[in-house]
Fold these 2 entries.
Entry 1:
Amino acid sequence: MADPRALFDLTGRVALVTGASSGLGRRAALVLARAGARVVGLARRQDALDDLCAEIGPNAGSVVADVSDREALGELVDRVNAIYGAPDIVIHAAGVNTREAADDVTGRGWDQTLALNLTAPFFLSQALVPAMKEKGWGRIVNFASLQTTRAFPGGVAYGASKGGIAQLTRAMAEAWSGDGITANAIGPGFFPTELTQAVFEDTDRAARNAAQTCMKRNGRMEDMDGPVLFLCSDASSYVTGQVLMVDGGFTAK
């Protein structure tokens, strides 16, 4: 038997992480780099991407772009490929939550949410898949949510996008896994990120969220490291079309 630790070695792999400027996207980029991958961070804030690349070191590059701009997708892929070559791994961590109540949802908020959270992961993956097919190896990791299966106040558009991510992940697996490309999703629980800042600033609300989990605590950034590395490596070679909830057991109750 080979050393099981080698299953998690990403040396020689190229990873693209959207939403890499902050939160769970940034954490994913750091983890993949420390596992040996060369990482391209994609986001809209150059200064934050510069900080990420400085922390990772020479095996990191960045692209500033709006991943939801479908008209610029071809140019975006060319810019990504120009850094380290075509990615073997793509993590779709970019996202937005407008938190509009059902009666107040606007067309603009709805379109923005669906474009970034659901449409962009598909079309960017579609553009990257041909190179993965040529290699016979690829990893697509989408970001689901507690709202993939649960309804939260102010979450109509966000919940619709994340419910769609679960089915999109299954459809991607059906379409592409025969070519050696796995497609899975991670569903985070309550983690302290920019997207959930308002939740964690309300200490009573944060405590209530923690109490609803089996583990009686909210997520810590390091809780995401193992699941991300698993789904991006050879360790998950026979896992596809799945949503892995990393939520301390919130959805188990």
Note: The longest strand covers residues 181-188.
Entry 2:
Amino acid sequence: MEIVKTVVVALAIAFVLRVLLFQPFTIPSASMEPNLYEGDYIVVSKWAYGYSKYSSGLPINLPLGEDRVFGRAPERGDIVVFKLPRDDKTDYIKRVIGLPGDRVQMIGNVLHINGAPVDNVVVTRGEVADIFGPRAMTQSRETLPGGRSFLIQDFGPGGDLDDTPVYEVPEGYYFMMGDNRDNSIDSRVQESAGVGLVPDENLVGKAEIIAFSWSPGASLFNPVSWFANVRPSRFFRVLD
């Protein structure tokens, strides 16, 4: 009975931590490179923006209506996990670029917020091989209004999402973008095929830290692959 009690208490603590405080997520794609890589395991704080019917981590949505309990607004530049608006089930991770009342637009591969270009300084140029073959790649440091600064990655002008119309962000919504600007389906793509604008109630939490990381190829059922693909340099990295 003592063992059973210990197990029950441990499970209850884990349940509370997952529902109210922290939730782990795995990065499934390259859309947030160079800051998050496929195979990164991140920890998301559930309390950062309060709680909504979509942020419990339970297989059912809590009956909280349209409001958030202990709600707080995200800041521009936060990396956020949210439920995809078109199905309210799929978890996505992007960066908050546009706040309620903002006008967001891409012009010639440059992000504009409220009519002004965002500061963007090239850090490095290189070449990346992906499913499209070797491509020239640029990493730049982007600084948003308010001073939040982080690296972005793109493959030069001329991409499908490098020139867009003006997106006006209404009250209660946020405009999300991936840091890998030419390899991200985000708020630049209409909700019917992409993300569209994200309602406040769909926010799950703020991505805080990379707990650990394996490159693609690691398998839970093949322990040898853990050591061959582990990326210790990314362990416990706090996210910008």
Note: The longest strand covers residues 119-130.
